[in-house]
Specification:
single chain; alpha+beta; Uridine Diphospho-n-acetylenolpyruvylglucosamine Reductase, domain 3; Vanillyl-alcohol Oxidase, Chain A, domain 3; five-stranded antiparallel sheet; about 35% helix; binds flavin-adenine dinucleotide
């Protein structure tokens, strides 16, 4: 519980109205896209780095946990008050501060929604490539903190590849700058890259500078249907091995397609057991040539149908279906666990076979969705948290799947983060020495362990 003195001090910084502690005001902040709930003591909504710095000093003095939170869409439980404390939200810090056309970068506040930045830079003929499927709601602060990826990651990479600099309020209340607008910067340790993906445990981002690229003049979108899931997976590796790097290479299995159809999203080939959604962007000639080569390769690898979108509206419809996939599958049972194990792309067919094997072995209902072009798998496990016996089978299955991914040279998480969802598996991927280094870094940034404690470390 927060003492009255500390609460009064924080209220004074936030001028009263932006300190919430009524049960009906804070209930929404008790959970995120992961499942368990932890009610915070209060919610703070600051409007400046200066206010945040003052709050961090009060929090240190009174030993109050602070948990930063964007839109709360993370699915690893990294924006909840697991060990008590207050949530700090950033809806008031939602301005695009600058779009610098000459230096090809943008400076934004942490509460800016990814899609709003996308739309604004497109008006300047520019592209901000990271496009998490949650882009219509997730914030830049959350994206940086979890190093979000998205379908365009195959060609363009993830948030970290576009992050140039940060303004950060440290847990102790000092404000620092890292990086800047330069594309090259090798001065000192790279704090910007360390902070990206730190899951709200090392500092609070108050300004974010990102690199932009020219908006590609043309793109083409294809969908290839397969009667065999394995053929779809091997097509992915074949396309990359042929020296082509599409913008996106997404895979959906039959369960996902059925759910999208039932949801009214789109209709798919009745024989299809899997679908690849492929997009290529760049100059018009290159796009056309690559589109043709990819179409031929899909057929060679067993596609039973390949369709191309002929208009932006048709392409958008295909994408809309993909974007509704998670929500549609999640509506099938009371809860949905989204897995995120990732493998080197050539092992994709193997890990997909493993998911199918585990689905049967543990008698579970799992749909397979994957950012296949970068080996990032999202098995969607449909369940009911109240069913203890099924949850026990899922726990064993998750452990086996993570072990399999690591044994293939993969990682526990490609983009969703570790949070409280996967902290118990960290020693599968990291030695005690590596974990101790991470704990040491945390202590240097946050000596009193008040910033998002109880998360992945
Ligand atoms: C339907 C759906 C689809 C998704 N698709 C993708 C996808 O394609 N790719 C992907 O990578 N993820 C995806 N996600 C996961 C999630 O959307 C991303 O991780 C996103 O980056 C979280 O942003 P947020 O604003 O919701 O942050 P939150 O969930 O609120 O917080 C995420 C983390 O950021 C920290 N944080 C927030 N703001 C700050 C700040 N200003 N300073 C420091 N730390 C901060 C929090 O403490 C927390 O650790 C998806 C989720 C859903 C529900």
């Amino acid at each position: 519980m927060i003492s009255q003195t500390a609460a009064a001090a924080m209220r004074a910084v936030l001028e009263g109205a932006w300190y919430l502690d009524e049960p009906e005001d804070i209930a929404t902040y008790s959970y995120d896209g992961f499942l368990p709930e932890f009610t915070p003591d209060a919610v703070l909504i600051p409007e400046s780095a200066d206010q945040i710095a003052q709050i961090m000093k009060i929090a240190n003095k009174h030993n109050i946990n602070i948990i930063p939170r964007g839109a709360g869409t993370n699915i690893c439980g990294s924006s909840v008050a697991r060990e008590g404390g207050v949530i700090m939200a950033f809806h008031r810090m939602n301005k695009i501060l600058e779009i610098d056309r000459e230096s090809m970068c943008a400076v934004v506040q942490p509460g800016v929604v990814n899609a709003d930045l996308q739309k604004e830079v497109a008006r300047h003929g520019l592209l901000y490539p990271p496009d998490p499927a949650s882009m219509n709601v997730s914030t830049m602060g959350g994206n940086v903190s979890l190093n979000a990826g998205g379908p365009r990651g195959v060609k363009y990479g993830v948030t970290r590849d576009y992050l140039l600099g940060l303004e950060v309020v440290l847990p102790t209340g000092e404000i620092i700058q890292t990086g800047g607008k330069t594309l090259k910067n090798v001065s000192g340790y790279d704090l910007t890259r360390l902070l990206c993906g730190s899951e709200g445990t090392l500092g609070i981002f108050t300004e974010i500078t990102v690199r932009l690229v020219p908006l590609p003049p043309a793109k083409t979108t294809l969908q290839a249907a397969y009667a065999d899931l394995d053929d779809a997976a091997t097509t992915v590796t074949a396309i990359l091995a042929a020296g082509m790097v599409p913008t996106t290479l997404e895979l959906m299995d039959r369960t996902v397609l059925d759910v999208i159809s039932d949801y009214g999203g789109a209709q798919f080939n009745a024989q299809a057991q899997a679908l690849l959604l492929i997009e290529v962007d760049g100059d018009k000639d290159l796009v056309n040539k690559q589109g043709e080569r990819i179409e031929a390769l899909c057929r060679e690898k067993g596609a039973i149908a390949v369709d191309r979108a002929h208009t932006p509206e048709e392409a958008n419809k295909l994408w809309q279906a993909r974007r509704t996939a998670f929500g549609a599958v999640a509506s099938m049972r009371p809860n949905c666990i989204v897995e995120d194990a990732t493998v080197p792309v050539k092992r994709l067919p193997e890990i997909i076979r493993k998911v199918v094997e585990l689905t049967h072995k543990y008698d579970l209902k799992i749909a397979v969705l994957a950012h296949a072009g970068d080996g990032n798998l999202h098995p969607l496990i449909m369940t009911d948290l109240r069913d203890k016996e099924e949850m026990a089978r899922i726990e064993t299955m998750l452990k086996e799947l993570c072990e399999a991914a690591i044994s293939m040279g993969g990682t526990l998480s490609g983009e969703h983060g570790i949070g409280i969802a996967k902290s118990r598996f960290m020693d599968m991927e990291f030695s005690e020495t590596s974990l101790n280094l991470m704990r040491g870094i945390k202590r240097v940034f946050d000596p009193n362990n008040i910033l998002n404690p109880g998360s992945f470390l």
